[in-house]
Amino acid sequence: MNEILMVRIFIYTISLGASIICLVNFRKLNKSFRWLGIFLLAASLSQITAYALMVTRGSNVDFYNVVILVNIILIFNIFVNINGNRRTKIWLTGIFAFGFLSTLSFVWSGIANQTFSVQGLALMSITVALGALIILFGMMRNPLNSSPLKMGWLWLLMGFLFYYTSTFSYWTATEFTSQVNAKKSLQNVNIVLIIIFYLILLTAIIIQLKFGDANNNPKPRRSIKSSSFLQ
Question: Which residues cross the membrane (predicted)?
């Protein structure tokens, strides 16, 4: 029990520390990383609240169901401010709107039945992964200004893509696993995934603060237009 508590404290420290860095440097960061700071702060507070509810009331299922919806909104605001491309924003808005409404129906059902909405979390994970892929596709179509390792937005997207793809796989495996030992092993894997996720986001914040936006926005390709006398 003490080991589990220590791991929780370690996770809280990483997420809360990363959010504090964002909030302290709020004016230095672009809108996407400002929303990331809010997301990390909300994640830290929700984890602490969920643990307190589990200790005091013995259940935090309804709370976690609501957190799913809050996370979709926060992640949408992170993603939509990464790329200024209008077409990308339209695609993101459509995907997240559909994902939110679909997730809402499953979350509502979970709250009504007092069960955790695995389907809602799975839909959210797919929505986030698709959103990250759309942004990556749009950004990679243009020439990059610098090394990918120096781009905060790329670390940010890879963190979300890694974690929510893994989350979808984790909960799918949990649903089809009935053995207790196997489920415990999967829970341990999930804890490792959470730690890696927050470490990647922390790295993204540090890189963003060090290199800024100069290396974060690929220059759009300029189309070569023919001269009037050639037409």
Answer: 6-26, 33-54, 66-83, 90-111, 117-140, 152-171, 191-212
